[in-house]
């Protein structure tokens, strides 16, 4: 009974304090693709993605009912940093759905304008002039774009109306001697209450952007300003150089087929110093037997069997996630290093490694010898023949090639050719009278002169261990694709090479040779392809630079660098995020300057967020159904080479 009454009370109390118009709600996921295109069209940074914002605390003045309900303490505020633009997961501020949708586009345009301002000198890490920066960006947009001026006028009118109504309600009890509806026009509150003065300033600059340049001091926060972007969350503390945990220790709960995955939200991080000189009981107290766990810093050893599937749900409920330099973090790094295979069990290493540069986007220059690429090859492989399943799939691909007239065509009974035609010789030998002028005993194999060199670079990172269905992992699909595609290229007659890569920070980029340009396609090559397994991380820039160098040394007019991956560049160190994106983009630019044609084939459904910035709008393909990659890849290749 208590539970039923509690639910009724909660429902009624929520209805009394809610300000959302549920019927007019617009979700970010419905507009994400359009907003991303719009953001870049407005001049936003091409390396950034658009993601949802998390709730942030605001210490605003609240009504008694709001205090009882515990509401209006956290709000979805829009903001951006060097990595992404963060917008609310939904907007239900206005009663009209079109206005809520227009607010998304206004915020996106404002983010693009603020981004352009930052490139001219303002850094988001030091963006403290929230009041003036938003005014400057707003004034520029409504001056330069008539359409945005019309949208802003509508939004500003509605926002001011809502703010006035809410402020009148909040101040009604305080304004005992004056009418609450006149609080903006009276000096009483501006002199007695700094918050009212701040609210008056916000209302003024919303109505006339640029009208004021000084933000009044207030002991409380003003009501959220939905038309503006807020400064990013700034992480401070002794753990500024905290290293992310080993990706292999992360566990993800399995999702049912068809289950919608929630968009990840970024959390505030608070670094704490957890180094203790002593652990355990200092003094034995009999009366505290039931509270030992409160006095002991208890470490639970994690085994491979541990699978805390609730950790994601727990993280969602936390406003602040505390990170510490606990000794368990060091143990995780040691464990990861021990996870590297022993030299006796690992692939054969060729040489001492190759020093390669990396692009530092903050310094806008290549840093020499920034990473070490280790070339490797499986030397002890069991040769395997092409299985019946692969043969059937290869025949389907070859039938497509034959239909396009690309497969070799054998002509018998020719006067010259590649091999002897025994049938034609026997027929001539059986004739009672020989005609020496009509002797044609050769087979001529005609090939189309395509003059194409292709290097296929496969992502063998840890993420390829993920399952795409109940039977297949991503790595299995990549293996099948390489197996079938290599057969097709052999029959097509194009020169090709196969490589795979993964990484463990900058000093250990693993570059696996499956087949180089000088190796014939054979059972040994198939054996190497069959042995590929998920590796570590995705330091894509180094692998692209090495592949570009190998491909550039080849002759021929057309050189294709085909990259197969399942996600964006990342690694344990600073390569995660913007640094990795920018380094990969620079590596692609370098490849194009060498006369190569880099092209990416990915199964990452979020590839539209970053691939246009890396490869250009026509430099990639996204395969929505990963299991179809073996069939789709040859078609993509044919379309790509047909243009050259």
UniProtKB/TrEMBL annotation:
Coiled-coil zones: none
PROSITE patterns hit by this protein: VWFA
UniProt xrefs under InterPro entries: NorD/CobT (IPR051928), VWF_A (IPR002035), vWFA_dom_sf (IPR036465)
UniProt biased composition (Basic and acidic residues): 245-263
Chain segments carrying region Disordered: 239-263
Domain VWFA: 453-636
Transmembrane feature ranges: none
Full protein name: VWFA domain-containing protein
Source organism of the structure: Shewanella morhuae
């Amino acid at each position: 009974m208590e539970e039923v009454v509690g639910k009724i009370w909660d429902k009624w109390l929520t209805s009394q304090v809610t300000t959302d118009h549920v019927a007019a709600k617009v979700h970010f996921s419905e507009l994400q693709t359009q907003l991303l295109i719009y953001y870049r069209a407005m001049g936003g940074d091409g390396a950034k993605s658009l993601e949802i914002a998390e709730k942030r605390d605001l210490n605003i003045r609240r009504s008694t009912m709001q205090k009882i309900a515990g509401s209006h303490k956290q709000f979805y505020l829009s903001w951006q940093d060097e990595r992404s633009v963060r917008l609310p997961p939904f907007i239900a501020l206005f009663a009209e759905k079109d206005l809520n949708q227009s607010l998304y586009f206004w915020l996106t345009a404002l983010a693009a304008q603020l981004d352009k301002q930052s490139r001219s000198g303002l850094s988001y890490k030091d963006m403290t002039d929230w009041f003036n920066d938003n005014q400057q960006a707003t004034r520029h947009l409504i001056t330069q774009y008539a359409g945005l001026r019309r949208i802003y006028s509508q939004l500003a009118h509605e926002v001011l109306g809502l703010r006035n109504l809410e402020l009148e309600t909040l101040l009604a009890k305080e304004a005992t001697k004056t009418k609450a509806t006149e609080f903006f026009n009276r000096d009483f509150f501006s002199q007695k209450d700094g918050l009212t003065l701040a609210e008056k300033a916000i209302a003024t600059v919303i109505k006339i952007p640029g009208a004021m340049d000084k933000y009044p001091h207030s002991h409380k926060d003003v009501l959220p300003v939905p038309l503006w972007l807020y400064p990013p969350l700034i992480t401070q503390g002794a753990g500024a150089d905290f290293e992310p945990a080993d990706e292999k220790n992360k566990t993800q709960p399995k999702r049912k087929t068809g289950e919608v995955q929630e968009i990840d939200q970024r959390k505030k991080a608070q670094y704490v110093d957890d180094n203790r000189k002593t652990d355990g009981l200092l003094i034995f107290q009999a009366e505290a037997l039931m509270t030992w766990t409160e006095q002991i810093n208890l470490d639970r050893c994690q085994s491979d069997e541990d699978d805390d599937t609730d950790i994601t749900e727990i993280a969602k409920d936390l406003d602040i996630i505390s990170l510490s330099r606990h000794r368990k973090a060091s143990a995780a790094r040691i464990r990861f290093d021990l996870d590297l295979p022993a030299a006796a069990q690992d692939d054969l290493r060729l040489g001492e490694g190759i020093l390669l540069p990396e692009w530092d986007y903050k310094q806008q220059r290549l840093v020499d010898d920034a990473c070490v690429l280790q070339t490797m090859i499986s030397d002890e492989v069991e040769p395997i023949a092409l299985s019946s399943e692969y043969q059937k799939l290869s025949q389907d691909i070859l039938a497509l090639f034959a239909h396009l007239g690309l497969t070799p065509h054998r002509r018998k009974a020719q006067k010259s050719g590649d091999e002897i035609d025994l049938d034609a010789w026997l027929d001539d030998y059986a004739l009672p009278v020989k005609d020496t002028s009509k002797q044609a005993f050769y087979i001529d194999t005609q090939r189309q002169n395509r003059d194409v060199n292709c290097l296929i670079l496969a992502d063998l990172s840890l993420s390829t261990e993920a399952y795409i269905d109940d039977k297949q992992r991503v790595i299995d699909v990549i293996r099948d694709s390489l197996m079938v595609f290599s057969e097709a290229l052999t029959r097509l007659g194009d020169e090709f090479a196969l490589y795979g890569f993964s990484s463990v920070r900058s000093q250990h980029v693993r570059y696996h040779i499956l087949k180089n340009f000088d190796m014939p396609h054979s059972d040994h090559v198939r054996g190497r392809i069959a042995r590929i397994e998920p590796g570590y991380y995705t330091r894509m820039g180094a692998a692209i630079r090495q592949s570009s160098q190998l491909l550039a040394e080849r002759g021929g007019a057309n050189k294709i660098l085909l990259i197969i991956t399942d996600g964006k560049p990342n690694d344990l160190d600073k390569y995660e995020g913007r640094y990795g994106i920018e380094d990969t983009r620079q590596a692609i630019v370098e490849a194009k300057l060498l006369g190569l044609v880099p092209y990416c084939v990915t199964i990452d459904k979020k590839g539209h967020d970053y691939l246009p910035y890396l490869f250009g709008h026509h430099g990639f393909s996204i395969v929505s159904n990963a299991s179809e990659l073996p069939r789709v890849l040859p078609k993509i290749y044919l379309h790509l080479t047909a243009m050259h």
